[in-house]
Design a protein that fits this description.
Blueprint lengths: L1 H26 L9 E5 L5 H10 L7 H10 L9 E5 L5 H10 L5 E4 L6 H9 L13 H7 L15 E4 L5 H21 L10 H14 L6 H13 L7 H8 L9 H5 L22 H8 L8 E4 L6 E4 L2 H11 L5
Helix pairs in contact: 2-3, 7-12, 8-9, 8-12, 9-12
Amino acid sequence: MRLFLASILLLVIIMMAGTYEYNRFISTPLNIEEQGSIFTVKSGSNLQKVSNKLEQRGLSEFHPYYLYLYGRVIEKSHLIKAGEYLILPNTTLPQLLDQLVDGQVIQYPLTIVEGVSAQQLIDIISNDKRLISILENTKLTAVMSDLNKPDNHGEGEFLPETYYFTAGMTDKEILSRAHKAMTLYLDEAWKNKAKNLPYKTSYDALIMASIIEKETGIAEERAQIAGVFVRRLNIGMRLQTDPTVIYGMGELYKGNIRRKDLRKDTPYNTYTRYGLPPTPIALPSKESIDAALHPADGTSLYFVATGSEGRHAFSNTLTAHNKAVRKYQLKKK
């Protein structure tokens, strides 16, 4: 009887100790700094290796077998996913296991700014150390070939937006995503375009959108400027827009346009040539694409920068435009 009672007592003590240890296991936070800790699970790692690594880095005070056994009991040990994780303060081991099973990896943001050139974008992405660089030749023509679009010029063909990526993503993958996003948005916008536009293809609209993007940063002006350019095309008037001239000058542009630059003929000089330039001149935003496909009604054919908040003054006639130029550009009455 004494032996039986002793066994019962020992069993109760073991159960109490086990319950205490289990409660401590599920409620004790990991040793994480205030800003959090980045923890990488390599491809092919199992929960045992993860548990060992947590102890080796001093993030867990529990023996590695605790997490491994817990994962086996709840049948999740084989479900963890590789990736880079941010462990936040007060995270417990069971919560970390849920994070690993759900694949809640770190998402890094990358914002493509509207108005930059495609080559500038490629250079920015190629130099981003968070991405794996696999593009051997980062010239625009070579990149388009790598994206299986060798016949595409590439300018204007990447959608400005904020993209999120995880560790291990390549420069080629993020560029491919931006290119596909632009293709999808442009195709959808083209389906809903206004009637009687002077564009033969959606690519023409993309060219126009890129010009609008470079002409103004004021949201409410985009459709107005689109209206001016559409009216000019409809009546056979040259676009006469400086950003296209600058793009055509390439590295020769040093910050200002001279009269001889306006007279020098290039495929992008809309002072010497009629119609649209052969390609876009920058990466246009969704808003500029929408403006190109839904220009504002009106009668204005000219506009000039006022020098105030990036805004423009619009005119119906050349006489009125010249007067606005004297007022805002030459500072004469």
